[in-house]
Amino acid sequence: GILVPVQTEPKNNKRGLGAEKTTKRKAVKPQAIESRHSEQDEEVPKKTKKLSKKMRKMIEHEKHLQEKEFERAFFREFWPDNV
């Protein structure tokens, strides 16, 4: 079909070059910064990234191999030779 251009309107809520009035960012008070850091340290620990499926399977496989190796070593040590 035929494409008809849509009427556009300029945004006036910009900062910098396209703005009618340039506004500067307000500086954050040092007290506010310190209080934010102390709140974050106390309340929320950093979340670790979730492992990919491939990594989870590799870790699971390694655990399985360690268990098998432990069983083999256990039987080698405690199982009688003549059985």
Low-confidence spans: none
The SS-based structural class is mainly alpha
**Continuous helix count:** 2
Give the DSSP E fraction (strand runs of 2 or more residues): under 5%
Distance between the termini: 85 Å
Helical proportion, percent range: 40-55%
Q: Give the helices and strands as they follow along the chain.
A: HH
**Average pLDDT level:** 79
Shape: elongated
Q: Count the strands?
A: 0
How many strands, what sense, and barrel or not for the largest sheet? none
Region (Disordered): 1-49
Biased composition (Basic and acidic residues): 34-46
InterPro entries: GPANK1
Descriptive keywords:
about 80 residues, about 50% helix, mainly alpha, 2 helices, elongated
Give the topology.
Elements: H1 30-43, H2 53-78
Describe the structure in brief:
48% of the residues lie in helices and 0% in strands.
Question: If you had to describe this structure to a student in words, what would you say it looks like?
Answer:
Residues 34-46 have a biased composition (Basic and acidic residues). Residues 1-49 are annotated as: Disordered. InterPro entries: GPANK1. The protein has 83 residues and is mostly helical. It has a domain at 52-83. 48% of the residues lie in helices and 0% in strands. It has two helices and no strands. The protein is elongated. It starts with 29 loop residues before the first helix and ends in a 5-residue tail after the last helix.
